[in-house]
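Per your request, structure below.
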């Protein structure tokens, strides 16, 4: 398990909030948010720590997640 600084946790939360704005409101479920958080955590665990990189990493998977979970 990785240890994340409080600053990185804030960046990851902000990235998740941003990514969730890209998902249609009628499809924004807890399951979708959890999956997007997983992508952000995975990217951070692989060393991507910038806001833009985390948003991009999760955003790349939006269509896949929507097609699977909706």
């Amino acid at each position: 398990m990785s240890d994340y600084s409080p600053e990185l946790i804030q960046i990851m939360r902000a990235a998740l909030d941003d990514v969730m704005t890209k998902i249609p409101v009628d499809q924004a479920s807890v399951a979708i948010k959890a999956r997007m958080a997983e992508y952000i955590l995975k990217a951070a665990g692989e060393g991507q720590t910038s806001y833009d990189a985390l948003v991009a990493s999760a955003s790349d998977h939006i269509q896949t997640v929507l097609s699977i979970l909706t």
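The radius of gyration is 12 Å.

Regards,
D.
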